[in-house]
Amino acid sequence: MSATSVVGLQWGDEAKGKIVDLLTDQHDIVVRYQGGNNAGHTVVFEGKKYKLSLLPAGILRRGVVSVVAPGVVIHPQALLGEIEQVRSQGVAVSGDNLLISDRAHVIFPYHMAEEAVFERSQKQNAIGTTMRGIGTCYRDKAGRIHAIRMGDLFHPDMFRARLTEIVAQKNIILRALSSDGDFRPFDANAIADEYLGYAAQLKSHVMDTTQFLHRELDAGKRLLFEGAQGSLLDIDHGTFPFVTSSNSSGCGIHNGSGVPERRISRMIGVVKAYTTRVGGGPFPTELDNEIGQHIRDVGHEYGTVTGRPRRCGWFDAVAARYGARLSGIDCLAVMLVDVLSQLDEISVCVAYEINGERTIDFPSHITDLAAAKPVYETLPGWKRDVSAVRRVNDFPAETRRYLDTISTLIGFPVEIMSVGPDREQTIFCD
Ligand code: IMP
After folding, report:
1. % the chain with pLDDT above 70
2. CA-proximal residue: ligand 1, atom 19 (nearest)
3. Given 23, 58, 241, 316, which is the most exposed site by the fewest CB atoms within 10 A?
4. 315 φ, ψ (degrees, to nearest 5)
5. Best substitution site from 233, 243, 249, 286 to test ligand 1's pocket, by max atoms within 8 Å of Cβ?
C-alpha cells in the first residue's frame, strides 16, 4: 500500500504544488479530487514556469498518469485552454496520461452568471469567491435536477434535452434576480453545440477513473493525492460560510476520488510559516499593518487565479492544529520560511481568548471566530537570509526554535521545509 496525500492545513495557497511536484517522481499516478479552476499554482520544472489550475501537477512528468476524479467540477473550456497552454510549453498530453472522470460535474456559463448575481447581492457578507461558478455548480450537483456530469456530454440527445429544460429554468431565475434589467437569456442550443464540441476534444480522456484507480491500486501502483484550497475552507468543517464548496480538507479524499482513505499510508499537512487568506471571513491573526504588507511583498502574496492581494498574518497554531487533526496528518511541511527572514520578532498565535475565556480549540461558529483574540508567543527573528540553507542544522538557532514551536503546538513533526521556489530550496528531515 503506497498512497500519499498532500493537503493544506490553513486557508489555501500553502504552496502544496511544490510538494506535489517534488513527490511526483516517487509515484505513478497523481489524483486531483475536489475543487475546480478556483485553485491555481505555479510549478517551476526544469527551469520553466507552468501555471496549473485544473490539471494535476503530475502532467509535467513523463510516465506519470494524472487523474481528475469525480469530486472535481470541470469548466471544459478552461481545461482545454490549460491543456493547450502546457502543450505549447512542450508537455505531451494524451488519453494515456490525462484521465478525467465521467462522474465529474460540469460548469456552464449560467453558473458564473448566478454566482455574480448572488455575490453582488451580499452587502456585508460576500464570501469573496473566485467567480468561477464553482459553488453554483456544486449546488446544482447537490440539487441534482440541474446537474450535468462529464459522462452526459457523450449522450448528445439526452444532454441537449436536459440542458434545454435547465436553461429555461435558469433564465427565469436569472431574469428575476437581475437588478439592472439588461439580462440576456442563455441559448440552450448554442451552449449544447459549444459543449458537445468540447466533449469531442476531451473524448479520449473521459472514463470511469474510480475503476481505474481501484485496478491500479490492486496492481501495486503508487498514488499521490493533490488537495486544492485548504482544510479551513472545507465546506463542512471549515469557517462556514466563508469556505469553498467542496471538502478541501483530508476529508474530501475518499468522497472525491472513490479511493478509501485507509489506502493512504502517508498524509502530509502543508502550512506556510505564516497565515494568509483570500476573500471574506474572520482571520484572528490578520496583520492589517506594515508587517502584513511586508509579508505580502516578500511572499508575493497575490492570488494566482484572481490576482487579489492576500490577507496576511502571523502563524495561527490554533487554526493549523485543527486543520491537522481534521485532515489526519502524519507530518508537516512548512513552506516559505525564508519570507520571515527580515523580521526582528515573529509572533505565533498559541491560543484564542473568546469572550474572556482562553482556549486552544478552534471554534465551530463564525461569530466565536470573529470574537477570538489571538494570544501570542513572540520569538526572536533570525535576521538572516536562509534561502541557501539545505540542512536543518544549518538554520540559525532562532529559525530552528520557530519551527520547533510550530511543531510542538500542532503536535506533529516537521519533515519538510521550504526556503524558496526552486526544488533545491527544500529541506527534508532524515
Ligand atoms: P470559491 O471556491 O470560488 O467558491 O470561493 C470561496 C472562498 O474560497 C473564497 O474566499 C475564495 O477566495 C476561497 N478560495 C477558493 N479557491 C482558493 C484557493 O485556491 N486558494 C485560496 N482561497 C481560495
Report:
1. 99
2. 39
3. 241
4. -65, 130
5. 233
- CA–CA–CA angle 61, 62, 68 (5° rounding): 60
C-alpha cell at 316: 495561527
Digit-coded pLDDT (tens) for 354-374: 999 999 999 999 999 999 999
Residues forming the active site: 13, 41
d(CA 127, CA 308): 14
Q: Is the CB of 13 under 6 A from ligand 1?
A: yes
The three grid cell numbers given for residue 393, joined into one nine-digit string: 542544522
Q: Which residues, in sequence order, are CB contacts of 34 under 8 Å at separation 6+?
A: 71, 72, 227, 228, 229, 246, 247, 248, 252, 256
The alpha carbons of the chain give a radius of gyration, in whole angstroms, of: 22
Q: Is 136 near ligand 1, meaning CB less than 6 Å away?
A: no
From the number of C-beta atoms within 10 Å of its C-beta (0-12, 13-18, 19+), residue 90 rates as exposed
- What is the distance between the alpha carbons of residues 358 and 99, in angstroms, rounded to a whole number? 49
Cα 279 to averaged position of ligand 1 atoms, centre (Å):
7
